[in-house]
C-alpha cells in the first residue's frame, strides 16, 4: 500500500521504521517544522524527519494542514492510508478524507482511558497497573475514533515515563504494521467504538507539577518522580539549591516529612506516609548521579531536610 506517515518525536520513529522495512511504500512524511534546540538554539530537524531523509523519503513540514497548497500536495499522493503517531498538528477533515482507506493513529494508552496529550505520564501518576497502545481511526474529535487494535503493557514499580515510552513505541510499531497488513489483504479494518462513559483525559504536563510536596504519600511521590523522568523532572530544595530527583522508590516506615533518616542505601526521606528512597539526583550545574556518587561529593547528614 501507498502510505503517508505523519509524526514528529522519537515515539513515532519505530512505526515509521517498521513501515519502511515492510512491503508498503511510505511515499511522503509529514512532520513539524525544524525547531531551535540546544545551547546555540540552532534549528534541529525532528527525529522523524531525520529518519525519513536517511531513506530518501520526501518530507513536508507545514506549520498548518489548513493551507490549500499543502492539502493539494497531500491529495496528489493519492495514498491508500495516512498513519499518524504523535504528529502534533490538527488534521483537518478534508485531509482525513483524502486517503483511500482512511487515517489511523497510534495512541499511547488503552483507550478510552487517557485521551489527550500526556497519557504515559498520567497513567503513572494515577497508579495504573497497566497501560498500552491503541490503534484507532482518526476523527476530528480528540482521540475519539473507533479502536482497531490494542496492546497492553504492565507498569512496574521501576518504570519511568521514558521506559514506558520506549516499550509503547515498539508495541505501537508492531500493531500498526499488523493493521496495515490487514488493510492491504482485506480492504477494511474492524473497528470498535469507544465507551464514552469510561473516558478520562490526560492533560498536558505543567512544570509546576514537578515540585515535590513531602507531606504526600511516598507511593504517590515515587510515581511523581518516575512519571516526570525525563521531563520535566521532579524537584525539591536541598541546602538552599534546587535539586532534581530522577529516580525514587517508596519504602515502609515513618519520619518527619522532608527529613533525611538514612544514608546507607540511597537517601531515605520521610513523607506524609511512608519513606522515599532517592536513588538518582542532580544539583544545578552538576551531573545526574546515583545517590552514593552524589553523597561522595555532597556530604549530607541525618536530620538534613528537603523542602519545597
UniProtKB/TrEMBL annotation:
<feature type="binding site">
    <location>
        <begin position="109"/>
        <end position="112"/>
    </location>
    <ligand>
        <name>(6S)-5,6,7,8-tetrahydrofolate</name>
    </ligand>
</feature>
<keyword id="KW-0648">Protein biosynthesis</keyword>
<comment type="function">
    <text>Attaches a formyl group to the free amino group of methionyl-tRNA(fMet). The formyl group appears to play a dual role in the initiator identity of N-formylmethionyl-tRNA by promoting its recognition by IF2 and preventing the misappropriation of this tRNA by the elongation apparatus.</text>
</comment>
<dbReference type="InterPro" id="IPR044135">
    <property type="entry name" value="Met-tRNA-FMT_C"/>
</dbReference>
<protein>
    <recommendedName>
        <fullName>Methionyl-tRNA formyltransferase</fullName>
        <ecNumber>2.1.2.9</ecNumber>
    </recommendedName>
</protein>
<dbReference type="InterPro" id="IPR005793">
    <property type="entry name" value="Formyl_trans_C"/>
</dbReference>
<dbReference type="GO" id="GO:0004479">
    <property type="term" value="F:methionyl-tRNA formyltransferase activity"/>
</dbReference>
<dbReference type="Pfam" id="PF00551">
    <property type="entry name" value="Formyl_trans_N"/>
</dbReference>
<dbReference type="InterPro" id="IPR037022">
    <property type="entry name" value="Formyl_trans_C_sf"/>
</dbReference>
<feature type="domain" description="Formyl transferase C-terminal">
    <location>
        <begin position="204"/>
        <end position="298"/>
    </location>
</feature>
<dbReference type="InterPro" id="IPR011034">
    <property type="entry name" value="Formyl_transferase-like_C_sf"/>
</dbReference>
<comment type="similarity">
    <text>Belongs to the Fmt family.</text>
</comment>
<dbReference type="InterPro" id="IPR036477">
    <property type="entry name" value="Formyl_transf_N_sf"/>
</dbReference>
<dbReference type="InterPro" id="IPR002376">
    <property type="entry name" value="Formyl_transf_N"/>
</dbReference>
<dbReference type="Pfam" id="PF02911">
    <property type="entry name" value="Formyl_trans_C"/>
</dbReference>
<dbReference type="InterPro" id="IPR005794">
    <property type="entry name" value="Fmt"/>
</dbReference>
<keyword id="KW-0808">Transferase</keyword>
<dbReference type="InterPro" id="IPR041711">
    <property type="entry name" value="Met-tRNA-FMT_N"/>
</dbReference>
<feature type="domain" description="Formyl transferase N-terminal">
    <location>
        <begin position="1"/>
        <end position="179"/>
    </location>
</feature>
Amino acid at each position: 500500500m501507498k502510505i503517508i506517515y505523519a509524526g514528529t518525536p522519537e515515539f513515532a520513529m519505530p512505526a515509521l521504521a517498521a513501515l519502511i522495512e515492510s512491503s508498503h511504500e511510505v511515499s511522503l512524511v509529514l512532520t513539524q517544522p525544524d525547531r531551535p534546540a540546544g545551547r546555540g538554539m540552532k534549528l534541529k530537524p525532528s527525529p522523524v524527519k531525520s529518519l525519513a531523509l536517511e531513506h530518501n523519503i520526501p518530507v513536508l513540514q507545514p506549520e498548518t494542514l489548513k493551507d490549500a497548497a499543502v492539502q493539494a500536495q497531500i491529495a496528489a499522493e493519492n495514498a491508500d492510508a495516512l498513519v499518524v503517531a504523535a504528529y502534533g498538528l490538527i488534521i483537518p477533515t478534508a485531509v482525513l478524507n483524502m486517503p483511500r482507506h482512511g487515517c489511523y493513529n497510534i495512541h499511547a494508552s488503552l483507550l478510552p482511558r487517557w485521551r489527550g496529550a500526556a497519557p504515559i505520564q498520567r497513567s503513572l501518576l494515577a497508579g495504573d497497573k497497566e497501560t498500552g497502545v491503541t490503534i484507532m481511526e482518526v476523527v476530528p474529535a480528540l482521540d475519539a475514533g473507533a479502536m482497531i487494535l490494542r496492546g497492553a503493557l504492565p507498569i512496574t514499580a521501576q518504570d519511568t515515563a521514558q521506559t514506558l515510552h520506549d516499550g509503547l513505541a515498539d508495541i505501537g510499531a508492531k500493531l500498526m504494521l499488523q493493521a496495515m497488513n490487514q488493510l492491504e489483504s482485506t480492504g477494511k479494518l474492524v473497528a470498535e467504538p469507544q465507551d464514552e462513559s469510561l473516558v478520562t483525559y490526560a492533560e498536558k504536563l505543567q512544570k509546576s507539577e514537578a515540585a515535590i510536596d513531602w507531606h504526600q504519600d511516598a507511593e504517590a511521590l515515587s510515581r511523581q518522580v518516575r512519571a516526570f523522568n525525563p521531563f520535566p523532572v521532579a524537584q525539591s530544595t536541598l541546602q538552599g539549591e534546587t535539586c532534581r530527583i530522577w529516580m525514587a522508590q517508596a519504602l515502609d516506615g515513618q519520619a518527619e516529612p522532608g527529613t533525611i533518616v538514612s544514608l546507607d542505601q540511597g537517601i531515605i526521606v520521610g513523607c506524609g506516609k511512608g519513606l522515599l528512597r532517592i536513588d538518582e539526583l542532580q544539583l544545578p550545574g552538576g551531573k545526574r548521579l546515583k545517590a552514593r556518587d552524589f553523597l561522595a561529593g555532597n556530604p549530607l547528614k541525618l536530620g538534613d531536610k528537603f523542602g519545597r
